[in-house]
Amino acid sequence: MVRVALCKTDKRREGTRDSLRALGVNPVKGKDVLIKPNFNTADPAPASTDNQTLVALIEQIWEMGAKSISLGERSWLPTQEALIQKGILPVLWKWNVRVIDFDGLQEKDWVHLQSSDMHWKRGFRVARPILETECLVSTCCLKTHQHGGVFTLSLKLHVGVVPTFRNGFDYMRELHHSRDQRKMIAEINEPFSPSLILLDGVEAFVTGGPTTGKRVRTNLFLASTDRVAIDAVGVAILKSVGTTKEIMGPKIFEQEQIARAAELGIGVVSPSEIEIVAADEESQPDRDRVRNFLSKG
Predict the structure, then answer these.
(1) Which of 230-244 are b and which e, b meaning 16 or more Cβ less than 10 Å from the residue's Cβ?
(2) How far apart are CA 10 and CA 212, in angstroms?
(3) pTM attached to this predicted model
């Protein structure tokens, strides 16, 4: 049974702290930690990771005893430009967080991966720091994806570990023009495994996305060690507030991102393997509501 902690709050610092505490694990102690945020663009949350959430996560990781913290990202914009527009660089320096701009990685630091059952025609490349970190912590948002992904939670977050264009090939063009896009998203996640995942659902896009869309306040945080579990619960939240027909129609574990990830052994394979844990008494009604949507599929 995999735990997903759920915390009801509109306060990002408290939501981060209380969801991580409710999860009850500490994989960061004594480790060199790499954080993968959602800084694909600099648009405000839920389009990208809220600065307050990132600071709260950094604070918790230091308190949990991390040896060092780095942040690694590849944005749709030039990554440095996205970080500057977010105004996050001075904050990261203040908290002694090293920034790894994947745009600046040398060719040897993009690891090529390929297998016969992939839907990537030439395989794909992954930033070496993601593969070699002692402890990967990922933080994602809660939103739909109008450009073929259907939703963008923890699995889709990791598209940012693959280059946009490298060695004469446009990886993002292949991804976004493929009928197998959602399966390809799942396949990106196979070579590595985050030790901790935090989802900020204070606001969600229930249509549109990933940069703009109809906003709904769900005031929920999730934390887990399992990407499939946290995405399944995230999709259940979207179903519970009303969203696109692409999400409302299929059962959760029939969604191609989730089904392919489960098939690859990336995480849980059914709702019965997920235990949603309420962070406190106030969170229990939302836990029960979301659990109902999850169990129904």
Answers:
(1) bbbbbbbbbbbbebb
(2) 20
(3) 0.97
Domain 2-296 has CATH 3.40.50.11440: yes
Distance set, CA 251 to CA 204, 220, 247, 271 (Å): 20, 22, 8, 11
Residue 214: Cβ within 10 Å count: 14
Residue-range domain boundaries for the chain: 2-296
- Cα 169 to Cα 202: distance, rounded to the nearest angstrom: 37
CA distances from 289 to 6, 62, 294 (A): 11, 33, 9
- Percent of the chain, pLDDT > 70? 100
CB 192 within 8 A of CB 126: yes
Residue ranges in 88-190 assigned as alpha helix (H) = 89-94, 128-132, 154-157, 171-176, 181-188
Residue 206: CB atoms within 10 A of its CB come to 22
3-state secondary structure of 112: strand
CB-CB contact of 185 with 257 (8 Å): yes
User: How many C-beta atoms surround the C-beta of residue 169 within 10 A?
Assistant: 13
End-to-end Cα, the chain, rounded Å: 17
Is the CB of residue 185 less than 8 Å from the CB of residue 228? no
Q: Say how far apart CA 219 and CA 6 lie, in whole Å.
A: 10
Q: Which helix (H) or strand (E) holds 220?
A: strand 215-224
Integer Cα distance of 41 and 61 in angstroms = 24
Give the residue from 63, 70, 73, 15 showing the smallest Cα distance to 223.
15
Question: pLDDT of 14-30, one tens digit each?
Answer: 999 999 999 999 999 99
DSSP 43: P
